[in-house]
Amino acid sequence: MKKTGGWTRLAATLLAAAVLLALVAWIAVPRLVKAQLEQQGSALLGRGLHVESVSFSPLTLTLELRGLVLDAAAGDADRSPQARVERLALNLSSRSLWARIPVIEALDLDSPSLRLARTAEGRYDVDDLIERLSEPSAPGTPPARFALYNLNLRDGSLRFDDRPAGQRHLVDAVSLGLPFVSNEPDQVQAEVEPRLSLRLDGSPLHLQGRSRPFSAERVSTITVDLPALALDSLWPYLPRSLPLRGQGGVLSGKLELRFAQPAGQPAQLSLQGQATLASLALRRPDGAPLAAWKSLAVEIEDLRPLGRVVALRSVALDSAVLHLR
Predict the structure, then answer these.
(1) If DSSP codes are grouped into helix, strand and coil, which group holds residue 267?
(2) What span, in angstroms and rounded, lies between the C-alpha atoms of 215 and 190?
(3) pTM above the 0.85 mark?
(4) For residues 288 and 271, is the Cβ–Cβ distance under 8 A?
(5) What are the C-alpha distances in Å from 19 to residues 22, 23, 96?
């Protein structure tokens, strides 16, 4: 009986210690994370970094941040936040303890928003951030190893303000799903199927892929589904050195893009599928009309731009006009 009572007391002591530890973690971790994130994050980025609230569940090892905000650059006329995430939830796996690397079961980002502005030719309002984050690591520093499962981004948005051109563009309804990413040696052959959907100035775009991003071959296949992408707002961003200018145009189709770069070999890029370019007019640099058509449909059997290979299955041109001079 004494032996049984001893085990009972030991179990009760361990249980009480576990409950006490969980209680301390529940109270202390949010305060520690909030303080370190705001202090160290602001020092790293050279901008104010704020978080409205932090919570932690020791039972599920889930850390949740709400209202994560990055301030605008000093001197920026637009004082609205550069970036904001309404909710970030990170679920850390207990396997991290014996794997000795961060193993993240799930990372959820709800309503992340980013504001980006082109302030001058080749200059952007995030140049200071890029410069800070691009500083090289100390020589001999090994890459940080990690394993991330189930990355989900919902209702994201990007507002692009082209101030020299006086134009604004909006990428919204962004949804991204990435089932698995790891750079551990025993995981590099794992194949993942990322997905991405968004609207660009109101035009929907869907991408579905298969990838082994950390394998020696770095093989990736991406399926691009374009219901109807309006091109009119994109023409001003083409190089002025091109011998033509575009006006109007709607691009639609379904294409499969495959990329591979085996070790010690040149990159391989191939494209298959079909695309339609409708309601397009081309002009010469001086503004004179060059060509126009109602519809141009192309079915690609094999296009390899890096290998200078072009194989088309069919080309259909409807209501084309060519202006000669």
Answers:
(1) coil
(2) 8
(3) no
(4) no
(5) 5, 6, 21
Asked if 89 and 107 touch (Cβ cutoff 8 Å), the reply is yes
Cα 233 to chain centroid, rounded: 22
pLDDT in 10s for each residue of the chain, 325 residues? 455 666 666 665 666 565 556 565 557 778 888 999 999 999 999 999 999 999 988 888 889 999 999 999 888 888 899 999 999 999 888 777 676 777 888 899 999 999 999 998 888 999 999 888 887 766 666 666 777 778 899 999 999 999 988 889 999 999 998 776 665 554 545 556 788 999 998 889 888 877 665 566 667 888 989 888 889 888 888 777 788 889 999 999 999 988 877 777 777 889 999 999 999 999 988 889 999 999 999 999 999 887 788 999 999 999 999 887 7
Determine the Cα–Cα distance for residues 225 and 222; give it in Å rounded to an integer: 10
CA atoms of 188 and 178, how far apart (whole Å): 15
Write the DSSP string, 54-90.
EEEETTTTEEEEEEEEEPPPTT-S--S-SEEEEEEEE
Strand segments (E) across 163-242: 167-182, 195-200, 203-212, 219-230
Radius of gyration of the chain (CA): 26
